[in-house]
Design a protein that fits this description.
This protein has helices spanning 37-133, 135-143, 151-170, 178-233, 258-282, 405-419, and strands spanning 7-9, 12-14, 17-23, 26-32, 294-296, 299-302, 309-312, 315-318, 324-326, 331-338, 344-351, 354-364, 371-372, 377-381, 391-398, 401-403. With 420 residues, it is an alpha+beta fold. It has a domain at 294-419: Glucose Permease (Domain IIA), CATH 2.70.70.10. The strands form 4 sheets. Strands 5, 8, 9, 10, 11, 12, 13, 14, 15 and 16 form a 10-stranded antiparallel beta sheet that branches. Strands 1-2 form a two-stranded antiparallel sheet. Helix 1 packs antiparallel against helix 2, helix 1 (37-133) runs antiparallel to helix 3 (151-170) and helix 1 (37-133) runs parallel beside helix 4.
């Protein structure tokens, strides 16, 4: 049938298309219906797009993979750089903290050494106060803080500083953590630093107190030596209140610390005080007839035998016959026997040109060359020699010249409080 078919679709006629394919002598006819045209075109379009997309994917796939690999490489490198930086920072912190630990340990060792020195000094200052100032100094000492009270704090700071550093390197938790470690370490460093500062301030305060007390003791020793020297000079005796100049030895440079300097000043003051004290103890400052009245003083008077003006070279003490006559100072008996107007007399050499005489004795109890201590009984009172009745004639001589014994009696009373 060659006649074309007519179809009505939406009021229109649809025509069929015939596709003629010829190959040599063979001829083929393919009829294309209108309903198959659109799907065929869609399929062809989809296949074309798929082919184009596949081709584009194959073309750009290598570039995409390269970009992804490069991105991953950059990310990995950045991560490794960050890890390396963190490790470097941790290493720096570790090194710094090791140095800080050594510095802390050295500081604590220094504090412990200072504490030990202060402890030994504390005992020496206590001894000096107890020996020289009596009960008042002991009461003051009991109120002073002890340097040993700070020893536990130092030991705690040493272990605390070491544990702080060790903990900081590990981090505050079980796992290492850089930020946590830094925060924890800063806190521990601040705490240990404040503790060391407080301890150092406490030791410095104790050292200042010790220096103050040593300075006070030095001033007191110098003032006491000055007062005693002035009293001794009032008797007419020249006293050398300086230490013995017969000294020597190799030169060894001494410590320049304030404590050692203060202690040297104190030693010098105490040496001077001992020199003055020793001089005072060798002087005849006692009373030959304690509790007895004075019947005649030193100086010009009417002579009881001749009735004319004469120099009385001593002091007469009223005393009944047989009363004890005592030495007014330590020394050596230079004469013991009868001596003209003195009657039975004892003379004692006290050194430094000072001597004393005890006259009109009824009995002599010592002999020449005998060593005498203060208050030793030399003999018995009497009325031998040029005397009108029983009494004790007492003389003090300086370089064999009679001086007023009242100077020595008054000086002895004033020095009594310093010699106890």
């Amino acid at each position: 049938m060659t006649e074309a078919r007519t179809n009505l679709a939406f009021g229109k006629k649809r025509k069929q298309h015939v596709l003629i394919l010829a190959s040599g002598e063979r001829v083929r006819h393919v009829t294309i219906r209108p309903l198959l045209v659109v799907p065929t075109l869609v399929i062809i379009l989809v296949m074309t797009l798929g082919f184009v997309g596949s081709t584009a994917y194959l073309v750009f796939r290598d570039d995409m993979l390269g970009a992804m690999i490069a991105r991953q490489s950059r990310m990995q490198k950045d991560y490794e750089d960050r890890i390396a930086a963190l490790r470097s920072q941790v290493d720096q912190i570790t090194s710094r903290q090791l140095l800080d630990q050594q510095a802390v340990e050295k500081k604590v060792e220094k504090l412990l050494a200072q504490q030990n020195a202060l402890s030994s000094r504390h005992g020496r200052v206590n001894d000096l106060f107890n020996e020289n100032d009596g009960p008042a100094s002991r009461e003051q000492e009991s109120a002073a803080p002890s340097a040993n009270a700070f020893a536990p704090q130092k030991r705690a700071s040493l272990s605390g500083a070491a544990s702080a550093i060790d903990h900081a390197l590990r981090g505050p938790g079980k796992e290492p953590g850089l930020k946590g470690s830094l925060t924890y370490l800063d806190n521990k460093d601040a705490i240990s630093g404040r503790a060391l500062t407080r301890m150092l301030a406490s030791l410095n305060r104790i050292e200042s107190e010790q220096l103050g007390r040593i300075a006070s003791l030095t001033i007191g020793a110098n003032n006491r030596a000055d007062a005693m020297a002035d009293i001794i000079r009032s008797t007419g005796i020249k006293i050398d209140d300086k230490a013995d100049d017969a000294i020597g030895g190799p030169y060894v440079e001494a410590s320049s610390s304030p404590f050692q300097s203060s202690l040297a000043d104190l030693d010098n003051a105490l040496d001077r005080l001992e020199t003055v004290r020793g001089a005072a103890e060798r002087l005849p400052l006692g009373n030959p007839a304690p509790g007895r009245d004075i019947t005649s003083r030193f100086g010009n008077r009417m002579d009881p035998f001749l009735g004319r003006l004469a120099l009385h070279t001593g002091i007469d003490f009223r005393a009944e016959t047989g009363a004890d006559v005592r030495a007014t100072g330590a020394g050596t008996v230079s004469f013991a026997g009868y001596s003209g107007g003195y009657g039975n007399m004892v003379e004692i050499d006290h050194g430094k040109g000072v001597s004393t005489r005890y006259g009109h004795l009824s009995q002599i109890l010592v002999r020449t060359g005998e060593k005498i201590e203060v208050s030793d009984v030399l003999g018995k009172a009497g009325s031998t020699g040029r005397s009108t009745g029983p009494h004790v004639h007492y003389e003090v001589r300086l370089h064999d010249e009679a001086v007023d014994p009242m100077r020595f009696l008054v000086a002895g009373t004033e020095l009594k409080t310093y010699l106890q």
